[in-house]
């Protein structure tokens, strides 16, 4: 059933409530003097993929704002850019050397797994944020968006837009030389949402290049390309240019994140083409791109909640408290997702860009 205004308002209120823990950190006065009832301060490292992507900046800022609540000495580190495994490995080794009690990390790739194991062997409690490692038990637990579900939402929405007409699809992924769960879960989830059969659910690009999609009545599809944009605007533009060179008639574009989507749109515009672009993240800039029509729909996630709840969990465990547990049916704690679009689709629950802007993150 088409999402009504009342249902939409109910959804945004539910999402806002679920993220209240993270968002309230920005408005909380410092309680570093009292800590947690006189308990000793503990060291925690927050290691993101980079320090420029608005998603990771929001995560870092949320962690810093909330550290005093748990009497945590938070050290923030990151790779230099997406793909910098060694930068994260160095930060993990530094956390061990400092005697930190735990690590929050958005793992770059399987290349950092050995360093994470070294930290856990040294007694640190390690929580992955946003990107579940492969395998999942590389860390103690993951706090993340259900990226598969995020992909399915934008896939279902995209199928409703083509509505039985041929779908000529470009898939703009994260990497071509690394296997990252967030990458294949979003890509494969999108295809599943479109009703396209996937072969190996943990591998991008092995599905049949042509066939039938079954969502929203179904129709023919052609997958033109799987190109890596490295999660950046310039990468998204160059990846889209490569795809257009293969087939100028692309009408559906999946993008790993919103900077990639903006770059893809620039390439389409330069070529005098238009297409339905879908993405994942839900930062304020991305929601604004939905409002302006650059992105048709995006799946919104909540990095502040990941950071603040993860940090609180490490503090609890370090002081002898209960360890967090995965949500039922998942191997991680789900921090929520909502589809943001101003063109609601039949049977796909969503919120508007105006509603999404009230709970977005970043600038």
TrEMBL record:
Domain Periplasmic binding protein: 44-321
Highest taxon in the source lineage: Bacteria
GO molecular function: carbohydrate binding
Pfam families in the record: Peripla_BP_4
Keyword terms of this UniProt record: Signal
Subcellular localization(s) per the UniProt record: Cell envelope
Signal peptide: 1-25
Any one GO CC term of the record: cell envelope
Family, per entry: Belongs to the bacterial solute-binding protein 2 family.
Record protein name field: Sugar ABC transporter
Origin species: Knoellia locipacati
């Amino acid at each position: 059933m088409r999402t009504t205004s009342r249902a939409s308002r109910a959804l945004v209120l539910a999402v806002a409530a679920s993220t209240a823990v993270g968002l309230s950190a920005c408005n909380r006065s410092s309680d570093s003097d009292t800590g947690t009832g006189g308990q000793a301060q503990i060291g925690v490292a927050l290691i993101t993929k980079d320090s420029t992507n608005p998603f990771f900046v929001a995560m870092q800022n949320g962690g810093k704002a909330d550290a005093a609540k748990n009497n945590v000495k938070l050290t923030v580190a990151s790779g230099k850019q997406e793909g910098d495994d060694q930068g994260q490995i160095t930060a993990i080794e530094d956390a061990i050397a400092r005697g930190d009690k735990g690590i929050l990390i958005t793992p770059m790739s399987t290349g950092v797994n050995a360093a994470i194991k070294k930290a856990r062997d040294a007694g640190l409690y390690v929580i992955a944020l946003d990107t579940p490692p492969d395998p999942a038990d590389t860390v103690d637990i993951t706090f993340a968006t259900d990226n598969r579900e995020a992909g399915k939402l934008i896939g279902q929405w995209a199928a409703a837009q083509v509505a039985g007409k041929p779908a000529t699809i470009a898939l703009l992924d994260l990497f071509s030389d690394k296997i990252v769960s967030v990458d294949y879960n979003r890509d494969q989830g999108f295809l599943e949402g479109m009703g396209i059969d996937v072969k190996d659910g943990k591998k991008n690009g092995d599905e049949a290049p042509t066939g039938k999609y079954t969502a929203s009545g179904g129709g023919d599809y052609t997958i033109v390309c799987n190109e890596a944009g490295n999660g950046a605007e310039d990468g998204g533009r160059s990846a889209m240019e490569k795809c257009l060179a293969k087939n100028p008639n692309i009408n559906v574009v999946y993008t790993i994140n919103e900077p990639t989507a903006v770059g893809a749109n620039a390439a389409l515009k330069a070529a005098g083409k238009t297409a339905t672009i879908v993405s994942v993240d839900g930062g304020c800039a991305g929601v604004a791109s939905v409002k302006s029509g650059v992105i048709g729909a995006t799946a919104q996630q909540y990095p502040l909640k990941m950071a603040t709840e993860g940090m609180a969990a490490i503090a609890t465990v370090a002081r002898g408290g209960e360890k967090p547990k995965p949500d039922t049916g998942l191997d991680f704690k789900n921090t929520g997702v909502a589809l943001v679009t101003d063109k609601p689709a039949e049977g796909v629950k969503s919120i508007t860009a105006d509603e999404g802007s009230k709970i977005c993150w970043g600038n």
